[in-house]
Amino acid sequence: MILIPLSSQAEEQTDIVRIEPIVITASKIEEPLNRTSASVEVIDREDIEDKQAERIDETLRGVSGVKINSYGGIDPLAWILIRGNDNDHTLVLIDGVEINTPYDNTARLGSIQTSSIDRIEVLKGSHSALYGSEAIGGVINIITREKEETDVSVKAGNYETTRGSLFYSDKKRDIPYSIGYSRSDSKGSIYTGGFSGNTASGKIKFYIGDYSTVQFNSFYWDHEKTGGELCCELDNNLNYRFTLPDKSINKEYDWINSIQFKQYFSEQFDYRFQYSRYDFNNTWNLSGDSRFPYPIKLDSRNIGSRDTFEIQNNLYIYDADTLTVGLQYRGERVSTYEFSNSDSTGLSSSKEQSSVNSFRDSRAIYIQNIFNFKDRFVFSAGARIEDGLGFGNEVIPRASASYSFLSTSTKIKGAYGKGIKAASIRQLYDPIAGNRDLKPERSESYEVSLEQEINKLKFEFTYFNNYLNELIEWRDTPATPKYINIGKAWTKGVETELFGRDILDSLDIRLGYTYLETKDEESNKPLRYRPTNYYSLDARYRGFDRLILDISSEFVGDSYNPYTFMKDTDGNNLPERIPSYKLVNIAASYIITHPLFKKIDFQVKINNLFNESYKEIGGFHTLGINFLAGVEVGF
Q1: Among 106, 182, 221, 322, which is least packed, fewest CB within 10 Å?
Q2: Which string of b and e fits 60-90 if b means at least 16 CB within 10 Å?
Q3: What one-character-per-residue DSSP string does 239-264 give?
């Protein structure tokens, strides 16, 4: 959100005009949020700082229709479920570059730190027509900072947690550039394990004449996760049981680099060309719990990369019509090796996956037309023709529309789209559960919504329905754990949100509720770990002198757990329903000024204020009350 002081002097900011955010993810072109017909939510830098969110998964908590599931503690593998879709159904971008790994098609949101992040755009619903395979559930675009500013922060908390960050941005000879770095360490608990991670970023832009730019972006993040709970090993009674392994070290680094050339021929036409490279390297070394008779041994390495070439052309026909045509090529390489004594009972030999060296590529053309009639009626339609990763030529359509009643500040919207997603390398070639006969997943979805603004309040109501065919799920039974196509499944529900900005001049509030139904039609059971009811609240108060107080809470209803044959670390069978829970987090900032500094911000955040004992994924413990306190200095 952009704040513009009406006075010429900063110390006289008595009135503030809030400018409607500009988003790019909904249509791949910049447009005001209130003009798009898609379901988009923006988390800006102010939200990140006031909540003191340290990682991307933490930032996304509380967004209606979005559920974060963690294995506990600082978790690089945290799930993101948008409207009940699977974790690998969400396309995640950093500055427009895909970061879903080619190995399992998921993104490591729990290890990306936020010190270099400007805003996050959350695009809900199927958008495969514009973005391709992974976007059948939604798109998350993480956009890095560019504003000329500098800040340094140092924090520490319980569980031997420390964090430090630096961000610097400036302009020399009309060349803007920025660099950022942050590091986080935490011992965690015996159940969640320890975490260490680094995040670094760099960006520089060159202006070529008056109408062209070249921009270089680089973003790197890594993690080392040690210890924590393991699912699962055979105990003395041959029960599958959660254990605490003797050694578990999981390391990964991810790195994206991109170059983007933009040229503006006129007010009616522009185009961009972008090349990006994504690299990842993951290793896991595991020695199981020696207290039991058949401890697991595992040594795995997964290395991969993705090269993407894209050219996009935009034709602006007066103020009413925008035509976009794009071409995209993606090439993915994955090399894997895995050894495990997966049948550690000794009844059969150990399993070693022969080295998999896979290369897959896709070619696509996409077209989109947006018609805007006087900011009242917006109609967007498009399609993608893709020769994809694991499927042949497919036509993927999408259409959306909105109409605004300006006199009453009312807006109605609707959307329809299809999607297709091929099986990941892991789903195809995992040495234990891989299945080379998997078919591509297909989706068909629609949504209708109503928005109403009344003074400083905004209310949104959305109904969504998503049909899934050939959904790929992990079937974990004692006899045959395997990835399979389960046939048909569906998710449907309602999202409601109430926003309030500057209520009583000092209070911002966001109330959200999501009602979700899911069903696997083969088993006639719900899909795993999707709560039916999810409430969220975020309230931010600035009425105190120099003090900002933010309170966020979640109430999560119970959810289905299919793995009742497993036992937890205490030897108890996992329940079929994961119990409901509530979380309350509080963050406080006290800001002072100094002649040498732009600001000195003393911060403290307490997570899980009431020390709730809860689980988000069956069998995996989470942290109790934990805090982080420190100082951030701005220049």
Answers
A1: 322
A2: bbbbbbbbbbbbbbbbbbbbbbbbbbbbbbb
A3: -EEEE--SEEEEEEEEEEEEEEEEEE
Question: What is the dihedral angle through the alpha carbons of 590, 591, 592, 596, rounded to the nearest 10 degrees?
Answer: 140
CA distances 285 to 114, 381, 385, 633, Å, are: 28, 48, 41, 40
Helix (H, G, I), strand (E, B) or coil at 159: coil
Given this model, what pLDDT does residue 1 score?
33
Per-residue tokens: 370: 């947006």
- Pairwise CA distance, residues 451 & 509, whole Å: 17
In the numeric block, which tokens belong to residue 226?
């040690």
Q: How far apart are CA 149 and CA 633, in angstroms?
A: 11
Q: In whole angstroms, what is the distance from residue 587 CA to residue 85 CA?
A: 31
The tokens describing 325, both together, are 């045509």
* Angle at CA of residue 36, ends 403 and 496, nearest 5°: 75
Q: Which pLDDT value is given to residue 11? A: 38
What pLDDT sits at residue 582? 96
Helices (H), 333-461: 425-429
How wide is the angle at C-alpha 366 spanned by C-alphas 146 and 32, nearest 5°? 40
Map residue 34 onto helix, strand or coil: helix
Closest CA to 80 of 138, 166, 147, 26: 138
Residue with tokens 């392994």: 245
Q: Enumerate residues 6+ apart whose C-beta is below 8 A from 169.
A: 145, 146, 147, 148, 149, 150, 176, 177, 178, 179
For CA atoms 68, 601, 168, 26, the dihedral sign is positive
Phi, psi of 150 (to 5 degrees): -135, 135
pLDDT on residue 357: 86
SS3 content of the chain, % helix, strand, coil (to 5): 5, 60, 35
CB 601 within 8 A of CB 565: no
Three-state SS for 12?
A: helix
Those residues whose C-beta lies under 8 Å from the C-beta of residue 328, and which sit 6 or more positions away, are 132, 308, 309, 310, 362, 363, 364, 365, 366
* Alpha-carbon span 258 to 121, nearest angstrom: 20
Cα(224)–Cα(372) distance, rounded to whole angstroms?
49
Residue type, 438: L
Below-50 pLDDT ranges, the chain:
1-16, 345-350
Q: Note the maximum CA span of the chain.
A: 79
Q: Is 547 helix (H, G, I), strand (E, B) or coil?
A: strand
Which two tokens mark 520?
Answer: 């696997």
Quick check: 471 and 485 in contact, CB under 8 A?
yes
90-94 and 138-144: which strand pairing? Answer: parallel
Provide the 10 A C-beta neighbour count for residue 597.
Answer: 15
Beta bridge partners of residue 588, listed in sequence order = 549, 604
pTM: 0.94
Distant-in-sequence, close-in-space partners of 511: CB < 8 Å, separation ≥ 6: 497, 498, 536, 537
CB-CB contact of 503 with 495 (8 Å): no
